[in-house]
Design a protein that fits this description.
Layout: H1 3-9, H2 12-21, H3 23-32, E1 47-49, H4 50-68, H5 70-81, E2 88-97, H6 109-115, E3 120-128, E4 133-140, E5 149-156, H7 162-172, H8 181-193, E6 195-197, H9 198-210, H10 221-230, H11 232-240, E7 244-250, H12 254-263, E8 273-274, E9 280-284, E10 289-295, E11 301-307, E12 310-316, E13 318-320, E14 326-328, H13 334-346
Parallel strand pairs: 2-5, 7-12
Antiparallel strand pairs: 1-6, 2-7, 3-4, 4-5, 8-9, 9-12, 10-11, 13-14
Helix pairs in contact: 2-3, 2-4, 2-9, 4-5, 4-9, 7-10, 10-11
Length: about 350
């Protein structure tokens, strides 16, 4: 056993993942995802810090995305077979700012209430005008370069037609809240104390992961088509909800990665998106095609093939800030994001 493996095995992070996911799954997560030493420094004990709980959630969410994206799963398996690991950069999810979202808080508020107690804070806001959305990057305050960020986008329903707004209401007004009163109390304690007793953290962790899912009822086929006419993003939300629309691997050279995957015949995006600064470069697999249920005009359940989630690649350069500090460029780019979002639209 190497020193790193020993550190992982003795860490609070390992103990928590074993408790929630089991020994085998925890071992697979540590094999698959590169975990920095700062995230292993907390020894197994009676209290779980917000940093460790956030990392545990991120690792489980990454694995959940792979289960939804066969191309991503195959890529990661090949990378592991070659002796590599994934550097989890960020996950992205979509929310809806609508008048009636049922029991679920509107838009980004559904996740702000989860991410902030875990130690994440909004680092930047990114207008996405072509999509009639706004994106917010949530970065972890305790270990910004070591913990994957969240890109939370919010669709502004009031900017669309009345027919579209009615279809949105039909879909999201049925939303349930995946968090119980007890879960919210634990989040409040975590926010105040920056840690939870181990048993409480282990109880809360699966509920946090469950927030990244579909919370509303099965949509009608008519509503889906109405949404699709004006917003591929909202049509996607109607079938996939608040699941990760993508998880992202930080690679050394995204151009080389894209060329290699293209040569293998993998469904990679034609273009690499480059930020205005030139320091952030992104591309992605095209969205997985998934079978989803709808309610037809006769009230019967029918299945259709629609775009699901996808897997992304990013390269970030380091730079020197105005104070002379060496930093990894953790920012996003509105143009890049809107280009990447087309992955779910192009597969429609």
């Amino acid at each position: 056993m190497t020193q790193t493996q020993a550190s992982a095995a003795n860490s609070q992070l390992h103990k928590l993942l074993v408790q929630v996911a089991g020994e085998k799954a925890a071992a697979e997560l540590f094999t698959m995802i590169k975990v920095e030493d700062v995230l292993l420094a907390e020894p197994a004990g009676e209290q779980v810090s917000r940093l460790v709980l956030a990392q545990a959630m991120n690792m489980l969410l990454f694995a959940k995305n792979l289960d939804a994206v066969p191309e991503g799963k195959r890529y990661v398996a090949d990378k592991l077979a070659a002796g590599g690991q994934v550097v989890f950069d960020h996950g992205a999810l979509r929310t809806v700012a609508a008048a009636n979202t049922g029991a679920l808080p509107q838009g980004e508020l559904a996740f702000k209430r989860v991410l902030e107690p875990l130690g994440f804070a909004v680092a930047d806001v990114y207008p996405l005008p072509r999509l009639k959305m706004t994106g917010r990057a949530y970065c972890h305050q305790d270990a910004p370069e070591q913990v994957a960020q969240f890109f939370v986008s919010e669709l502004h329903v009031d900017q669309f037609s009345p027919a579209f707004q009615a279809a949105v209401d039909n879909v999201v007004s049925t939303s349930r809240d995946p968090l119980s009163t007890a879960d919210k109390a634990l989040l409040a304690t975590l926010s105040d104390n920056r840690e939870l007793p181990f048993a409480d953290a282990a109880s809360l962790l699966p509920k946090l992961v469950g927030c990244f899912d579909v919370q509303h009822a099965t949509p009608t086929l008519a509503d889906y088509h109405t949404l699709l006419q004006e917003s591929a993003e909202m049509a996607w939300i109607s079938t996939e909800g608040n699941a990760f629309n993508h998880a992202t691997d930080h690679v050394a050279d995204v151009f080389a990665t894209a060329d290699e995957l293209r040569a293998k015949g993998q469904p990679i995006k034609d273009k690499v998106e480059v930020s205005a600064s030139g320091r952030v470069r992104q591309t992605a697999f095209k969205a997985a095609q998934v079978e989803r249920e709808f309610i037809d005009a006769d009230g019967q359940r029918v299945s259709r093939i629609v775009p699901g989630s996808f897997y992304e690649f990013i390269t970030r350069d380091r730079y020197t800030d105005e104070a002379g500090n060496d930093k990894l460029d953790l920012r996003f780019d509105s143009s890049n994001a809107q280009g990447i979002f087309k992955m779910t639209a192009a597969a429609c």
